[in-house]
Amino acid sequence: MLREIRASDLPDVLRLVQANFPEENALLGWDPPAFERAARRFFRWDTRLLLGLLRLVGRPIFRMFLLERDGHPVAAALLTYAARSGYVSTVVVDPAFRRQGYARAILAACRTATARSGRRYVVLDVLDANAPARALYASLGFHSLLATTYLARAIDGAPAPVSDRVRPFRSRDAPPLVEVELAQRPGPVQDVLPFDRGQLAVPSRVVAGLGSETAAWVTPADGPPGGWIRATTSGFMAAANLTRPILAPDLAEADVDALLATATGWIAARGKRRAVVEVPEYDLRGRAALERAGFGAQFGVGTQVLDLGP
Questions:
Q1: Which residues contact 151 (CB under 8 A, 6 or more apart)?
Q2: Share of the chain above pLDDT 70, in %
């Protein structure tokens, strides 16, 4: 039976996630019990009411579908709604029930929900090393949109002193930073996954809902910003996350280095000992800056897209 997830399903679904994503779990240091405690906040009556109202007025945030057999979850997927697409993640199938069509069924549910929401594209990510999943998505009509690499580095020692080259991000900093990103962002990527100023802001509601902490900075400290980065920590992951830096072509290397040092220092101050960042293939300067700061490649991920038509 296909249905949406309930709070009582969380332990079973989290076990499926552990079984299906060993590489990511090892890199991020995921703590399932802590995540379950945070996720249960989304099942409170007030949160359910808000999500239901948003769906009613055509502005859904996410849905999580589940397939059960004999009363037990055997497959699940999370569908998050972006501006023009439904973004499918955490596609999991119980290893004992693979090759029985469950992945196809749950992806079909995500496709139908995306189409009904008026969005044109279905998007998902797949590890480069996961050949069976890539073959499945190709058979369903998905094609490659973007290649991304996960980079990570250890965070050692005391936090670095705050640089006078860097300051906290403010909402009025967004327009020039959006211009920098759009100048390098490939057209097909922008069409499917449009970038806008809202993605630079600190997502306080989501962060608070998950019991996390986040901050963003820009450089230079005076005048229009030419660089930006955000760092996020949570109680259910040993590693911290960096949202990859946006760097103008003419931004001084000293400003770039100060920006990364500020973000990693903030992470160190919160007791995290590893930082992880995803870098798309088109961001050559961002990757070079991260590698100069000690980040190394871990594994590759391909973003796949299915066009549902006009």
A1: 276, 277, 278, 279, 287, 290, 291, 295, 296, 297, 298
A2: 85
Q: How many residues does the chain have?
A: 310
2-119 under CATH 3.40.630.30, yes or no:
yes
Residue ranges, CATH 3.40.630.30, the chain: 2-119, 152-304
Give the distance from CA 192 to its chain's centroid.
16
If one compares 42 and 90, the residue with the highest pLDDT of the two is: 90
Query: Going by C-beta distance under 8 Å and a sequence separation of 6 or more, which residues neighbour residue 91?
Result: 20, 75, 76, 77, 103, 106, 107, 124, 133
Number of CB atoms found within 10 A of residue 59's CB: 10
List, for residues 240-267, the tens digit of each pLDDT value: 999 999 999 999 999 999 999 999 999 9
The amino acid sitting at 173 is D
Q: Assess if CATH 3.40.50.2300 describes domain 152-304.
A: no
- Does the structure show a pLDDT above 50 at 177? yes
Q: Closest by alpha carbon to 201, among 165, 220, 175? A: 175
SS3 268: helix
pLDDT value, residue 51: 38
